[in-house]
Amino acid sequence: MMRKLIKSLVVSKDLESHIDKMPKEVGSLGYDAWGFNSDINKIGVALFKKLYDHYFRVEADGLENIPKDGPCLIIANHSGQLPLDGTLIGIAMEMNPHSPRAPRAMIERFFPTVPFLGNLLNSVGAVIGDPLNCAKMLERGEAVIVFPEGIRGSGKLYNKRYQLQRFGNGFMHLAMKYNAPIIPVGVVGCEETIPAIANVKPLAKLLHVPYVPIALPFIFPAKVHLNFGKPMHFNHDQNETGREITEQEVTKQVEQVKSAIRGLINKGLAERKRIF
Question: Residues 225, 62: contact at Cβ < 8 Å?
Fold first, then answer.
């Protein structure tokens, strides 16, 4: 009852009509196997879209590169201490005028340990960043957001802004196994939302959290540019000779994706006229 009331107050008819175009299988109670709920997702989009439009003034380019259906991996650079980049990418995907898609974001294992936050994130499409979860979603033809830098990217200090950290190879193995195209994304602006000058590692260890940044307790209204690149295909895990490719060759393919993201970041930095 309360959910329906909130939805009626915050979700416009136009927004609901747009999101309903998004292909998404849910059960009779409105949930899918990972806890995604249609109504809660609509409420979340309605609330965060105000920040997307008016606080971060997001400009998203290249949304037509996201496949209309079928499995795909949205691979982006990570920054900003909080997962604002994933949220903004997700809003861009749902509001895509070409073909809205339900984003499934892989999140750090830490988040579900925070009371209520885990269930809330599941309700809007986020899932623990586990290879098995990602594989099952690709099997179902989902569009999955992955940040291969992990906490190395989100927790880095301001003096390392826009410097890509080490990528894991896991997403590439999954892309090849499930013939999922990779859509590289360059995010510009989130680095400046919560600039951190240090990480208090002993306190982070004591609190069992990934990092404890020293930063102002404020999210700055940096303007955000999202550039979605052309799909990259790595269709199978064998090379042209039929031999299974080595981990070293997988790493080279990961470097191709990393290079594409670096180019999209540079495009966003060149487009940016001012930080705020």
Answer: no
Residue count (the chain): 276
Q: Which of 138, 151, 137, 31 is nearest to 83 (CA)?
A: 151
Show the tokens assigned to 222: 């940096």
pLDDT digit string, tens, across residues 211-242: 999 999 999 999 999 999 999 999 766 666 66
Among 21, 150, 136, 27, smallest CA distance to 71 is for 136
Pairing state of beta strands 72-76 and 143-146?
Answer: parallel
Q: Are 23 and 69 in contact (CB under 8 A)?
A: yes
Cβ–Cβ < 8 Å for 228, 101: no
SS3 176: helix
Q: How far apart are the first and last CA of the chain?
A: 40
Q: What is the pTM of this model?
A: 0.93
d(CA 211, CA 206): 10
Tokens for 18?
A: 């747009």
State the amino acid at position 109 in one-letter form: R
Residues of the chain with pLDDT > 70, as a percent, come to 97
Residue 183 identity: I
Q: Is the pLDDT of residue 48 over 80?
A: yes
Task: Find, among 179, 189, 175, the residue nearest to 75 by Cα.
Answer: 175
79 and 47 Cβ atoms separated by less than 8 Å: no
By DSSP bridging, strand 103-107 and strand 127-128 are: parallel
Distance of alpha carbon 159 from the chain centroid: 23
Q: In the predicted model, what is the mean pLDDT of the chain? A: 92
Q: How far apart are CA 220 and CA 197, in angstroms?
A: 15
- Percent with pLDDT over 90 in the chain: 79
